[in-house]
Write a structure and sequence with these properties.
The protein is of the alpha/beta class and 242 residues long. Helices cover 37% and strands 18% of the residues. The chain has a seven-stranded mixed sheet with strand order 2-1-3-6-8-7-9, sandwiched between helices. A two-stranded parallel ribbon has the order 4-5.
């Protein structure tokens, strides 16, 4: 998510359309949201309105454009019709994530990461760790889930739950498909990852990690159906590698 100014943009529309599908068509009934929210940055980004290409929820689009404020609390109101419980970092609109205080942030999340029968969604600015320390510091290290943090997320994940990770891809369209494959391999090599898959549209992918084969199979089938129904021109589905 990064900043509140991004609330309701085209990426939010994609992510919550997919998340809604997970709850409509899988056996998961609880939602855990880790927004990794950072403080406002003054630039020209965050102005892309949601567009329905014919396959996503028009009800969701109307809900998004009808919000008069930019608040992460709106997602709880939306998902309450689909989930039995909704847990997140509190206070959700002001619990900021920073590189200097990242250990404290994750410590505060540990109790909700253990939720059973849940989709645990982690929403960083960019995604999984990329490049060396110098590169990360230059890009903004708060934009990443570091490899050791992914290890923590996986270890805390209940076997009855699924971990979902936001992954932004390089701007070069030719790198979208291989970039998703690369991040899927990165996730698959972490300790405790038994099953992983991913779905991409344009320059945004979502990685799914499960410990139980039946849950992994559910997510795979759901993503295959979502891919088949999507009206997006640039899309791909990725299953376990290696």
């Amino acid at each position: 998510m990064v900043q509140l100014k991004y609330f309701g943009d085209k990426y939010d529309y994609f992510k919550y359309d997919l998340i809604t599908e997970v709850f409509k068509y899988s056996s998961l009934h609880h939602y855990v949201y880790i927004p990794m929210l950072t403080e406002h940055r003054d630039d020209k980004e965050g102005r892309t309105r949601p567009i329905n290409r014919g396959s996503k929820s028009e009800e969701l689009r109307h809900y998004i454009v009808g919000r008069k404020t930019k608040s992460l609390k709106h997602w709880e109101s939306w998902l309450n019709q689909y989930v039995r419980s909704y847990r997140t970092v509190e206070p959700v609109d002001s619990a900021f994530f920073s590189d200097a205080k990242r250990d404290g942030y994750w410590s505060g999340c540990r109790s909700i990461l253990k939720e059973k029968n849940a989709l645990v969604f982690v929403d960083p600015d960019t995604g999984l760790e990329s490049g060396n320390l110098s590169y990360q510091l230059k890009a903004g290290r708060e934009k990443y889930v570091l490899n050791n943090e992914l290890d923590i997320l996986i270890s805390e994940l209940d076997p009855s739950s699924v971990l979902m990770l936001y992954q932004h891809l390089p701007r070069n369209i030719d790198q979208h498909h291989p970039g998703t494959e690369k991040k899927l391999r990165q996730a698959k090599t972490r300790r405790g990852v038994l099953h992983a898959c991913a779905y991409r549209e344009d320059d945004l992918a979502f990685l799914f990690i499960a410990k139980q084969p039946d849950l992994h199979s559910e997510i795979k089938q759901l993503l295959m159906a979502y891919h088949s129904n999507s009206g997006h021109k640039f899309k791909s589905i990725h299953f376990e590698t290696g």
